[in-house]
Design a protein that fits this description.
The protein is an alpha+beta fold. 31% of the residues lie in helices and 13% in strands. The chain binds a DNA duplex (26 and 26 nucleotides) through α6, α9, α12 and α15. It comes from Mesocricetus auratus.
Length: 759
DNA sequence: CCGTTTGGTAAGGGTAATGTGCAAGA
DNA sequence: ATCTTGCACATTACCCTTACCAAACG
């Protein structure tokens, strides 16, 4: 059915206050509203309530039923006494692309809410009628559907879960309750009145779905794990004794009702296990065709009552029947062909072509259609999962990044089989490397906040940035990684994800430190990357030079990354650890004045082609900034105009260390990534082509580039050549880079080596 | 009293991840 | 001959929706 789009790129936003958007680790937009200009926050009431709510509503005030883009907003007070606040916004209603024409303007309004503990009532209808509906009957559902409402179904995304958890947390805080289980399992209905409604706010799911989710989450008899043989025995006894009273059985076993119910479904007395006999297969096929009124050879992947099938087959459970049919028999019956490596590449390409921001948006039925080696849409999806797992940290990277990485990986494999086969000397067994690539990792490079360097983290401009390193986890000794760095979500992102940056003055006009805001933990996943705030007047094509410092690398790495943004021009350069002091006070930022046009393909199309195998692998950056100024307004079209790809070339040498990291449990991901990040030594050499444009330095009156800074041409100092001692220092220091520049072939192979890792 | 709202259960279709057996290759 | 590895298939814990029910509410 319907799904929710959170494609903020297409949402038009107008701010009515001086605010800064940032993005949290899950892609939620955070709106920062500093307290220094409170009178603008609410025009109707000069007294500042401690609580405010941000409300997004369509400008033309469409009727509630009109499926207007709804963005739910959660206000987070930063502290009791602090009048500033944060707002988390999540788009919750699907909006067709064509509805997002220029005319659709969503306005942000800061509203007041005196009641600390009330989150939802105001604007409930605008936000989501769905989330306040229990959906008791089919009529309820139809009624909402007819009114144009759509809602999310299927697996909950991480974003949704986080919203839910946030809501619950705030509900608890507001009422001084420590543990949500008190409400969920101990309170009477009356006592927890409005609990579910309140916490459902911001979620475009029926109330009942929220209720179920919450019960499961907080039921500690859920997620208990594998059933022991003793438990199975006891379960059998209890089943005989209590029948289908799952609650009672579950209580006796210390398991949730749904858990014991599900387990019972798996254990039919008559069930065979292991390989299917021919007789069983034949019977399954007959039954399926009979019950679905289809002929042998017909493709049947849906509308099968597996319980009924299992009943008729007799020797297998419904799940066994379903699995056998969808993963093998259906395909065999309809004369399917074998799945090949080409199919695998094809799948990646096809998914990439879909250009969906979220994996959940993939229509597997459509994708599987007419594809003879695909056994079923369900099977294709599981195939995708196995492909995905070739990227060890696939969970930590956004979907587009993952796709990009996989594309590179497979392209690379296709074009350089020899290199893969020659891969040796790393001390790692390399058998079958050429046929299967495992445990490639998309590197997550993060610029972490460092309060020692960043005295006012909230004050400055913040830019969500993606930097992802595709690399091998293989060789601890050596390696050169290919790198593409993407600021914000470009179409060409292959890299990692930074939560948000802000710019910090360095003492040099126009030279800034680029730093992340605090409190954003890993793993960082930008599923949707909405607008990025970047200081510049939206209409002005001026260039900003940003001298960025990566605190992450203060300790043990040197890291030069330069980003050139065409419109507006932004050069972001991260600098070497040991040169921090210099960087802060230095007067000039070097840009290599040798222009290597040939090294610097034209964006954006060339980037794709250039990305990996054909050339010397070169790290790249793409920046796609948009703006958030004092009062900014960007439509879909505008933001497209504003988002100009920036290409930066950087070459790096990364010494990989810990190769044991494979797929850590999610709760360890943070440590894992961090650890990973500490290891590499990254040296970026930058060759920029400025074309015939002038580099400009933009000073900011605030000391940092603030969202409200209006940067006009007069405030921009033209500069043609910049010198950066740090940069030069690194050039001298880095023999590797010099060597790699001199020997493109070896560089290439080395890169490939590193990209592809076998265990 | 009665229609509506809210909270709840059972059944069953499904997904995501792990386990297992086996063939191919080193 | 033996070990390793990758793969396909099998299994299973958990997830989600639907349909239906009943108590509480207004």
């Amino acid at each position: 059915m319907s799904t929710v789009e959170e494609d903020s790129d297409t949402v038009t936003v107008e701010t009515v206050n001086s605010v800064t958007f940032t993005q949290d680790t899950d892609g939620n937009l955070i709106l920062h509203c500093p307290q220094n200009d409170p009178d603008e926050i609410d025009s109707e009431d000069s007294t500042e309530p401690p609580r405010k709510r941000l409300c997004l509503s369509p400008e033309d005030d469409q009727s509630v039923d009109d499926a207007a883009p709804c963005i739910s907003v959660v206000a987070l007070p930063l502290s009791e006494n602090d009048q500033s606040f944060e707002v988390t916004m999540t788009a919750t209603t699907e909006v067709a692309d064509d509805e997002l024409s220029e005319g659709t303007v969503t306005q942000i309004q800061i509203l007041q809410n005196d009641q600390l503990d009330e989150i939802s009532p105001l604007g409930t209808e605008e936000v989501s009628a769905v989330s306040q509906a229990w959906f008791t009957t089919k009529e309820d559902k139809d009624s909402l559907t007819n009114k144009g409402h759509k809602w999310k179904q299927g697996m909950w995304s991480k974003e949704e879960i986080d919203i839910l958890m946030n809501n619950i947390e705030r509900y608890l805080k507001a009422r001084g309750i420590k543990d949500a289980t008190e409400i969920i399992f101990e309170m009477s209905k009356d006592e927890r009145k409005d609990f579910y409604r309140t916490i459902a706010w911001g979620l475009n799911r029926p109330l009942f779905a929220v209720y179920r989710r919450v019960l499961r989450m907080y039921d500690d008899r859920n997620h208990v794990g594998k059933y022991t043989p003793e438990e199975i025995e006891k379960l059998k006894e209890l089943r005989i004794k209590h029948g289908n009273d799952w609650a009672t059985i579950g209580a006796a076993l210390g398991r949730s009702a749904s858990s014991v119910k599900d387990r019972c479904r798996l254990m039919k007395d008559t069930c065979n296990t292991g390989k299917w006999t021919e007789e069983e297969e034949k019977r399954l096929a007959e039954v399926v065709h009979e019950l679905t009124s289809t002929e042998p050879g017909d493709i049947v992947t849906q509308g099968v009552s597996w319980a009924a099938v299992a009943e008729r087959v007799g020797t297998r459970s419904e799940k066994q029947c379903r699995s056998k049919w969808l993963n093998y028999l259906n395909w065999k019956q309809s004369g399917g062909t074998e799945w090949t490596k080409e199919d695998e590449i094809n799948l990646i390409l096809r998914i990439a072509e879909l250009d969906v921001a979220d994996e959940n948006d993939i229509n597997w039925d459509l994708l599987a259609e007419g594809w003879s080696s695909v056994r079923s849409p369900q099977w294709l999806r599981s195939k995708w999962w196995t492909i995905k797992r070739q990227i060890a940290n696939h969970k930590d990277v956004s979907f587009p990044v993952l796709i990009k990485g996989l594309k590179q990986l497979h392209e690379n494999q296709k074009n350089n089989p020899v290199l893969l086969e020659n891969k040796s000397g790393s001390g790692v067994p390399n058998s079958n490397c050429n046929s299967s690539v495992q445990h490639v990792q998309i590197r997550v490079a993060r610029l972490e906040d460092n309060t020692a360097i960043s005295p006012s983290p909230m004050a400055a401009l913040q830019i969500p940035v993606q930097i992802t390193h595709v690399s091998s986890t293989d060789s601890p000794a050596a390696s050169v990684d290919s790198e593409t760095i993407t600021l914000n979500s470009g179409t060409l992102q292959t890299f990692e994800i930074l939560p948000s940056f802000h710019l910090q003055p360095t003492g040099t006009p126009g030279t800034y430190l680029l730093q992340t805001s605090s409190s954003q933990g890993l793993p960082l996943t930008l599923t949707t990357s909405p607008t990025v705030t970047l200081a510049a007047a939206p209409a002005s094509p001026e260039q900003i030079i940003v001298h960025a410092l990566s605190p992450e690398h203060l300790l043990n790495t040197s890291d030069n990354v330069t980003v050139q943004c065409h419109t507006p021009r932004v050069i972001i350069q991260t600098v070497a650890t040991e040169d921090i002091a210099n960087s802060i006070s230095q007067a000039e930022l070097a840009v290599d004045s040798d222009l290597h046009s040939s090294d610097f393909p034209e964006p954006p199309d060339a980037l794709e082609a250039d990305t990996f195998p054909d050339e010397i692998p070169r790290p790249k950056m793409t920046i796609q900034p948009s703006f958030n100024t004092h009062v900014s307004k960007f439509s879909d079209q505008n933001s497209t105009e504003l988002m100009n790809s920036v290409m930066v070339r950087a070459e790096e040498d990364i010494a990989d260390t810990d190769l044991k990291q494979e797929e850590p449990p999610s709760h360890l991901a943070s440590a894992y990534v961090t650890e990973d990040l500490e290891s590499p030594t990254i040296v970026h050499q930058v060759h920029q082509t400025i074309d015939d444009e002038t580099i400009l330095i933009v000073p900011s009156p605030h000391g940092f580039i603030q969202a409200s800074d209006v940067i006009d041409t007069e405030s921009v100092l033209p500069l043609t050549t910049l010198t950066d001692p740090i940069f030069q220092h690194h050039q001298e220091e880095s023999n590797i880079i010099g060597a790699s520049l001199g020997s493109p072939v070896s560089e290439d192979s080395k890169d490939v080596e590193d990209l592809v890792n076998c265990h």
